[in-house]
Write a structure and sequence with these properties.
The structure holds 2 protein chains of 2 kinds. Chain A has helices spanning about 1-15, 40-55, 60-70, 70-80. Chain A is mostly helical. Chain A has a single domain, classed as ACP-like (Non-ribosomal Peptide Synthetase Peptidyl Carrier Protein, Chain A). The model of chain A has no long low-confidence stretch (mean pLDDT about 90). Chain B has 2 domains: about 5-200, Thiolase/Chalcone synthase (Peroxisomal Thiolase, Chain A, domain 1, 3-Layer(aba) Sandwich), CATH 3.40.47; about 210-330, 3-Layer(aba) Sandwich (Peroxisomal Thiolase, Chain A, domain 1), CATH 3.40.47. Chain B is built from 11 helices and 11 strands. An 11-stranded mixed β-sheet of chain B has the order 3-2-4-5-1-6-11-10-7-8-9, sandwiched between helices. Classes of the chains: A mainly alpha, B alpha/beta. The interface of A and B includes residues 15, 17, 18, 42 and 52 of A.
């Protein structure tokens, strides 16, 4: 799981152009939206595309997204259980 | 059209030092045929959380726009009008590569939103919270003049009091390869972001008056020459670059004049791209502001040692569309 968390952190830094950040700067348990990284709705779309491209996960239920994208830890947990590649 | 139109401030990002006039005394001289722009320091101008989603051209554009506004007497423009030949090229390339790799699924929203030509004008409006007239002209090598012409007409006719105008083009390595085939007349290719504030008031802080803006579609050269003959211009800035294909129309035009004007070049310093003529506008404004002409800009004729009252900029796009912009020093500063 630790490897997956690190991989997700690096992928999120790249996809969202968080240029001044390293994986160490991101608290895996901190909220991604609002506080924490302070991501917004466009970032949410970028994360949905990331999960589909990299892990073959299609998110069809919007209400599900709120829980999945709560933190890096919650994304890692969902990916480990649902990944298709 | 009783109103007058003045240039109040201007800023550039190019292959010269960004947001600076240092090129006037010590320009960067490049041996390469293709040079990318010097990236500006965006600190204090763009919020980091907003900057992370911007491509290079958007960062350059916002930087010049905010700098021009900060240096002007205008805080909220009545209109934002820009020109661009190719728009956000880097994002367009990434978006097309994604389509070819992933089909029409899984496409990144940011690239989709920021790959259109009018992203530039609209992003400035969003940042400034400006709800006024907003337009983008994409007419190849005459895009800047089209944007300027729109703003100039609206100010002259009293529809707006001021405008933020500009021209922006980025040339990616792939785009440079394409230009080598489509525009072999380019001898030195680089990138341009230029923003300027135009006002209708005769303020002491104005740089010069934008006296005349004309566009000609497939003109007879006599028609352009007649526009020049009305008064003997002391300085004529041409889009010459040393390549005979590019320079021939300018040479043909000069043959129609009954006097030998002092002609200047600027593409040797700022390079060629679809927005290059915006840098001629910038160079002309700086010549009038500083009342001197650097020797490296000289093309033909002797450099003037006296007052420089008029600068006329002539540009053509593929020899089919011509533009004439006349800047005047004499009518400014509350006279």
């Amino acid at each position: 799981m630790e490897d997956l968390v690190l991989q997700l952190k690096n992928q999120i830094i790249e996809v969202l152009n968080l240029e001044d950040m390293t994986a160490d700067d991101i608290d895996a348990s901190a909220p991604l939206f609002g506080e924490g990284l302070g991501l917004d709705s466009i970032d949410a779309l970028e994360l949905i595309v990331l999960l589909e491209r990299e892990y073959g996960i299609k998110l069809s239920n919007p209400t599900e997204g709120k829980q999945i994208f709560k933190s890096i830890d919650s994304i890692a947990d969902y990916v480990s259980k649902n990944r298709k590649k | 059209m009783a109103n007058r139109c003045f240039l109040n401030s201007i800023a550039q990002v190019s292959c010269q030092k960004p947001l600076s006039d240092e090129w006037f005394d010590s320009p960067y001289i490049y041996e390469e045929k293709y040079v990318r722009a010097q990236e500006p320091d965006t600190k204090g101008l763009i919020v980091p959380s907003e900057a992370r989603r911007m491509s290079k051209i958007l960062k350059r554009t916002v930087t010049t726009a905010i700098t021009a506004l900060n240096n002007s007497d205008v805080k909220q423009p009545d209109a934002i009008i820009t020109g661009t030949g190719m728009g956000c090229m880097e994002n367009s390339e990434k978006f097309l590569i994604d389509i070819s790799r992933f089909g029409e699924n899984c496409l990144k929203p940011t690239l989709f939103m920021q790959s259109t030509h009018n992203t530039i004008s609209s992003l400035i409006a969003i940042i400034l919270k400006c709800h006024g007239y907003n337009n983008t002209y994409s007419h190849k090598g005459i895009s800047f003049e089209s944007a300027l012409f729109d703003a100039w007409l609206q100010i002259k006719s009293g529809l707006i009091r001021n405008a933020l105008i500009g021209a922006n083009d980025e040339v990616t390595p792939f785009m440079d390869l394409v230009l080598e085939r489509t525009h072999p007349e380019y001898s030195f290719v680089s990138e341009t972001s230029m923003s300027a504030v135009l006002v209708n008031s005769n303020l002491p802080s104005n740089i010069c008056e934008v006296f005349e803006v004309k566009l000609f579609h497939r003109p007879e050269l006599e028609e352009i020459a007649d526009s020049l003959k009305r008064e003997t211009d002391e300085v004529l800035i041409l889009g010459v670059n040393g390549n005979p294909i590019n320079d021939k129309p300018y040479g043909d035009l000069l043959k129609h004049l009954d006097y030998l004007p002092q002609t200047l070049q600027y593409k040797n310093i700022f390079g060629d791209n679809f927005s290059a003529s915006a840098m001629a506008f910038y160079v002309g404004a700086k010549i009038l502001e500083k009342q001197s002409i650097p020797t490296f800009l000289q093309w033909q004729g002797n450099l003037s040692s006296g007052n420089i009252e008029n600068v006329t900029i002539l540009n053509h796009s593929d020899s089919t569309v011509w533009s004439l912009i006349r800047l005047k020093k004499e009518a400014l500063c509350g006279n």
